[in-house]
Design goal:
- It is a single chain.
- With 290 residues, the chain is mainly β.
- The protein has one domain: Jelly Rolls.
- The protein is 4% helix and 50% strand.
- It is built from one helix and 26 strands.
- The chain is globular, with a radius of gyration of 19 Å.
- The mean pLDDT is 94.
């Protein structure tokens, strides 16, 4: 009798256009809506922009979630309706908490004279019920605030939560796990088991779990409590996400909530220009028709 695989589900991303470039959307998927609090995960790039071009996401709203921007290459200028302006670069973290509502833009930095690259992960975390309507906020965490570990040849950065004896300084609102793993070929590393829901997304390279190989673009959702050991077939980069489940959430456009009525209110608020503006940025993304 064969033993049960430690991987419950494999998710393949869908391609979505952001205008200037495409992203690989992993969460939510038809097979799995959330992993712990992670309700959305986009793999951006790697994209190459010629001189004069760059990311240009116009002001848009959010409710009921926190966003995490984490870059491997490049930089993005964040601006929001609270008045924050912050350039994020590779290895740092921007944590924006929408709560009852925030508006922000994500654009290239002012220097567009040279060819640039952009590569990273944009993720949303649903907020627990008691925090869904909290005051919005923004915190920037420099690269030096994220612990980095060397484990049997692998390098692990703890972006959120705690793993392998290290804890990140990045704020969390519920039990959350978020890691970047860089695995040289032949390296093997077990996923932490401190949270009940875990998934590994292969950004680059390929990893083997229980004799099955998973290549770039695959998200491996682990069975609860299973021993999951990733072995890199080639030099690989893997993002690990997880945490404790928060219960179902409704997602419509950029809005996340436990209440459909709250999302309908957010639609009206955005249409009526009642969610605030980004200082110095008069553009906006209109409410989608569908």
């Amino acid at each position: 009798m064969t033993s049960e695989s430690p991987i419950e589900l494999t998710i393949e991303p869908r391609i979505r256009s952001l205008g200037e470039f495409d992203v690989r959307r992993v969460l939510p998927s038809a097979e799995r809506r959330m992993v712990g609090p992670f309700v959305f995960l986009d793999h951006m790039g790697p994209a190459v922009f010629p001189p004069g071009k760059g990311i240009a996401v116009r002001p848009h709203p959010h409710i009921g979630l926190a966003t995490i921007t984490y870059l491997f290459e490049g930089e993005i200028m964040h601006r929001d309706s609270l008045g924050y302006t912050q350039l994020i670069q590779a290895g740092a973290v921007n944590l924006m908490t929408a709560g009852r509502g925030i508006v922000h833009s994500e654009r290239a930095s002012d220097d567009l004279a040279v060819t640039s690259r952009l590569h990273g992960i944009q993720s949303w975390l649903a907020l627990p019920l008691e925090h869904e309507e909290m005051e919005p906020g923004f915190i920037h965490y420099p690269t030096t605030s994220l612990p980095e570990l060397s484990l049997g040849g692998a390098t692990v950065r703890v972006i959120m939560g705690a793993a392998y004896g290290a804890r990140s300084a990045v704020a969390t609102y519920s039990p959350t796990l978020y890691l970047e793993m860089r695995l040289p070929a032949g390296t093997e590393l077990a996923l932490p088991k401190d949270v009940s829901e875990r998934a590994a997304y292969v950004v680059e390279g390929a990893v083997t779990v229980a004799g099955v190989e998973y290549r770039e673009g695959a998200m491996l959702v682990a069975r609860t409590g299973a021993d999951v050991r990733l072995r890199a077939s080639v030099p690989s980069r893997v993002m690990v996400v997880g945490g404790e489940p928060l219960g179902p959430r409704h997602i419509w456009w950029n809005f996340v909530s436990s209440s459909k009525e709250r999302i309908e209110q957010a639609k009206r608020d955005w249409t009526e220009n009642a969610m605030g503006k980004v200082p110095g940025d008069d553009e906006f993304i209109p409410l989608p028709e569908r």
